[in-house]
Each structure stands twice: as C-alpha cells, then as structure tokens.
Design goal:
Alpha-lytic protease prodomain-like; Alpha-Beta Plaits; three-stranded mixed β-sheet; 3 strands; elongated; transmembrane; transmembrane helix; SLC30A9; Cation diffusion facilitator family transporter; membrane
Length: 307
C-alpha cells in the first residue's frame, strides 16, 4: 500500500464525524437522550481519532537519523494504538457509565422526533464514510476475508477506520432503537438500554483494535504469503538454499529482511556480491515493501553433516 495509508478514507471519516458530533450534541440538548449523548461523545472521540491517524502519517514521514536509523514508520502503529485506547476510554467507558446512570435515574425524553431525524441523517452520512473506507480497503485487501484483512493487515489506518465506521453505524442503529422504544412505550429506560448497547459495542471494537495494534507496535513479520515469495526469490540463481530468515515490519510500508543463505561453492567475491544484489532485486520485485534486505552467505552445515 502507498504511504497514504487510506488518507481519503480517514479524511472522509473525520469530516463526517465532526458534522455528526455537532448535530448529535444539539439533539441531546433538545431531547435529553442518553443515547444521543453517548453517540455525541462517540463521534467526538472518532473525530479526534482520525486526527491522530493523520498526525501519525505525517510524523512517520520523518527521515531516519542516528537515533532512529530505521526511521519513524512505527509512529503510525503508535498513534493507531492510542486511537484504540481513546475509543475504549472516551467511547465505551462513557457510554456504559451514562447507560447505568440513566437506568438508575431515568429521565423522560423531550422532542424525541428531533433525535430520530438527527440519527437517520447521521446513519446516511456514516454510511457514505463507511463506503469510502470499504472502497479504499478493497484496493489492497486482495482475496482474503474482511476479518482476515483486519487481522493480517500491516497498514493500521484502514482497519481502524473500517471498525470505527462499522461501530458508528451499529451504534447509531442502537441509539435509534433505544429512542424509538422509549418514545413508543413511554419508558425512558429503553434509551438507557440503547446507551449500554453502544458501550458494549465500542468496548468490543476497542479491545480488538488494542490487541491488533499492540501486535503491530511490538513488531510483526511478513505474512505467510510474503515469506514464501521472499524465500522462493532468494533461493534462485547462485543461491542454493535459505538457511535462516527473519523478517519484521518496521513501518507499514517497510519490511526488514535478514537471511543466511547457502551459495554455489567456488564463487569469487565479485560473483558472491553480484548474486546477493540479484537476489535483492528479485525479492523487491515481488515484495516491494522489502526495502531493507541483509543477506549473509554461510555454509549449509546441515547438508555437510549428512553427506
């Protein structure tokens, strides 16, 4: 994926959430709906989150230096991890607190039709944002399932935006159900139930993101498909076998490859150097993210021991 990391999807989500947050707060002030308040805080959190994702993309572009010789690519993982934490604390925790509070002290809604109209409009806007994230993700998703894409993607922004937008859509539906039932039955407890459902939903999404972003932040290797391609391209030409290999993503667009290889015997130093250069070119042609490649010629002692 390009260094943009789904910038179009992030910006679309930011603009949609900023507008929706204002509308929801107005709706809460008019109706007093706890579901509307929870959704307002949720939209504010999402807007802040998209800002953090854009900040991470910007800081990750800083050039490598003596202190950070491999660059700042992991900034994108760090800010995505912060986004997951914010979604949990600002979104889920607040909604759960507000839902429990409103169950204990229910308050009747005023002008619920205002909340319904705002929620319907918000669902339409959020659907457009979600569609943009899906279109951007399909460019790099390949033939894996959406769940596999979220679990396996080494680019953090699009999985984050996808889950955020999905959570926002379901959250709006839960809020609409809560407000609707509270209006039809005259029992404001349903509004609080909708708020609790929003809190649980955001909590589940936040935990998934925390787990995935923590894994990326610590350092993940190449995907199984990428590793197979790398090994196949290394073990060609005058390289007979890959003895040992380790990989790690040091940024969404930069993969570090370190390998020990067994080479054809009797090669001159110049031939060894050329064989290594050729191997690097082959690997980068198949896995463009493999920008840093270190190849060490070595003896294949396992073969020597059995001969």
């Amino acid at each position: 994926m390009s260094a943009g990391g789904g910038t179009k999807a992030i910006v679309a989500a930011l603009l949609a959430n900023a507008g929706i947050a204002v509308a929801k707060f107005v709706g809460f002030l008019i109706t007093g709906s706890s579901s509307m308040l929870a959704e307002s805080v949720h939209s504010v959190a999402d807007t802040s989150n998209q800002g953090l994702l854009l900040l991470g993309q910007k800081t990750a572009k800083r050039k490598a230096n003596i202190e950070h010789p491999f660059g700042y690519g992991r900034d994108r993982y760090f800010y995505s991890f912060i986004v997951a934490l914010m979604l949990f604390t600002l979104g889920s925790a607040f909604a759960l607190y507000e839902g429990i509070h409103k169950i204990q002290e229910p308050e009747a809604l005023s002008s619920p039709i205002v909340a319904v109209v705002i929620l319907v409009v918000a669902i339409i806007l959020e659907s457009l944002s979600f569609r943009t994230a899906i279109v951007e993700s399909r460019l790099i998703k390949g033939d894996v399932t959406w769940w596999q894409f979220i679990r396996q993607s080494r680019t953090p922004e699009l999985p984050v935006v996808l889950l955020e937008d999905a959570g926002a859509l379901f959250g709006l539906v839960f809020a609409l159900i809560g407000v609707g039932l509270a209006t039809v039955t005259g029992d404001p407890v349903w509004d609080a139930v909708g708020t609790l459902m929003i809190g649980v939903l955001l909590g589940v999404i936040a935990i998934i993101l925390i787990i995935e972003m923590k894994s990326l932040l610590i350092g993940e290797g190449a995907t199984p498909r990428e590793l197979d391609l790398i090994v196949d391209e290394l073990a060609a030409g005058r390289i007979e076998r890959v003895i040992h290999i380790k990989t790690q993503y040091i940024g969404p667009d930069e993969l570090l490859v370190a390998a020990k290889v067994s080479m054809t015997s009797g090669l001159a130093v110049e031939e060894v150097a050329q064989a290594i250069d050729d191997a690097e070119h082959r690997v980068r042609a198949k896995v463009p993210a493999a920008r840093l490649i270190y190849i060490e010629p070595d003896l294949d002692r396992s073969t020597a021991a059995t001969s």
